[in-house]
Amino acid sequence: MKAFEVKDMEDRKNNVIVLYKVPEYAPGSYEEVVKHDSDSFLEACTDAPGLDIAREDIKKIYRIGNRYRS
Predict the structure, then answer these.
(1) Percent of all residues in the chain with a pLDDT value above 90, rounded to a whole number
(2) Higher pLDDT, residue 15 or 5
(3) What is the mean pLDDT of residues 50-58?
(4) CB-CB contact of 25 with 32 (8 Å)
(5) Is residue 68 part of a domain?
(6) Residue 48 within any structural domain of the chain
(7) Is the pLDDT assigned to residue 64 strictly greater than 80?
(8) Total count of domains within the chain
(9) 37 and 22 in contact (C-beta within 8 Å)?
(10) Most exposed among 18, 24, 28, 44, judged by the fewest C-beta atoms under 10 Å?
(11) 28 burial level (CB within 10 Å; 0-12, 13-18, 19+)
């Protein structure tokens, strides 16, 4: 396997692709929205047995789909 394929596989091995029903955060700064989404993800992980995830384990988080509209 080529080096970039190995790195890509390593980068993707802990990906979480979809979480449903994460509440929207009111419009604010990008950092506030990302913090809210990270907090929601960590709360969901806390409720799941056998998962021990800390904020430092999250490399990147973003929403897919429509943005909140006022």
Answers:
(1) 0
(2) 5
(3) 81
(4) yes
(5) no
(6) yes
(7) no
(8) 1
(9) yes
(10) 18
(11) exposed
Q: Which two tokens stand for residue 14?
A: 């802990």
> How far is it, in rounded angstroms, from Cα 43 to Cα 19?
12
- Amino acid identity at 2: K
Asked if 58 contacts 44 with a C-beta cutoff of 8 angstroms, the reply is no
Residue 46 domain flag: yes
Domain-located, residue 38: yes
Residue 34's domain spans which residues? 27-63
Tokens representing residue 33 in the block: 């929205």
Q: Residue 68 pLDDT > 60, yes or no? A: no
CB 19 within 8 A of CB 48: no
Token pair 């802990």 in the structure block, residue: 14
Written as one letter, the residue type at 49 is P
Neighbours of 37 (CB within 10 A): 19
Please tell me the distance from the alpha carbon of residue 55 to that of residue 18, in angstroms, as a whole number.
18
Residue 26 tokens, joined: 């009111």
